[in-house]
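Recall from the previous chapter that SMILES is a line notation for molecules. Here it describes 2-acetamido-2-deoxy-beta-D-glucopyranose.
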Amino acid sequence: MARKPSAIPTQIFLLFLLIIPITSTTGTNDSSQLTNMVVYLQEKTSAPNATEVPVAGIAGNLWSFTSFGTIYVVDDSLTTTIDRNSTQVGRARGIYVASALDGSSIYLSVSVLFTNGFFSGSTLELQGTSVLASQVGEVAVVSGTGKFRFAKGYTTYETVFVDTAAGFSTSRLNITIYSDMSPTLPIIYETMNVIS
Ligand SMILES: *[C@@H]1O[C@H](CO)[C@@H](O)[C@H](O)[C@H]1NC(C)=O
Ligand SMILES: *[C@@H]1O[C@H](CO)[C@@H](O)[C@H](O)[C@H]1NC(C)=O
Ligand SMILES: *[C@@H]1O[C@H](CO)[C@@H](O)[C@H](O)[C@H]1NC(C)=O
Ligand SMILES: *[C@@H]1O[C@H](CO)[C@@H](O)[C@H](O)[C@H]1NC(C)=O
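With both inputs in hand, we obtain:
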């Protein structure tokens, strides 16, 4: 998620490689469950069909991740594997803001809207600081809706594929959350197999 100050913003491929719910022994509610998801985010920064576009910035300045004040709007595809043409499981929609005066990081606020399978219609809210120089970034999962009500956790992300000429990149997101999903573990696990 835009970890590099390069001309090619990080593409994030959301791929559900593996979703393994594990009964948690911690959390605020005994029914709280730990879920790990791996998805791939596909991000395109150049036309045609760019999925990440700078829409505002300080007049007279170049709009970029390292230029304080620049705002990007994002609508990236989330897929089950690193292949951009693999099954789409959702969209990552939100904003990136170049909020560091020294250009070292951006602020992001992104809703992950699941559009396929068991979690279709449910959302997770990602929010935090993305340090551009980091090999692996991490932001908070502040909450969610639908199947992810009361969710909380974090996600790491790292670029796993870059096509500079096409302005395209893929990132792997490892999402780790506690949530109060009411279905039992076996049902969730079977459903995830259906998705992938
Ligand atoms: C935990 O969550 C379950 C399911 O929503 C609920 O029925 C139960 O009352 C909750 N327990 C506590 C202690 O909050
Ligand atoms: C851009 O999106 C349109 C509408 O979905 C599609 O018809 C077109 O093939 C896409 N162009 C490229 C180069 O992917
Ligand atoms: C995936 O789709 C893109 C755009 O339609 C296409 O250029 C590319 O060849 C496809 N990749 C594979 C592995 O099918
Ligand atoms: C994300 O998950 C994949 C698959 O389990 C793993 O190979 C990778 O090391 C993880 N990345 C991070 C940053 O934890």
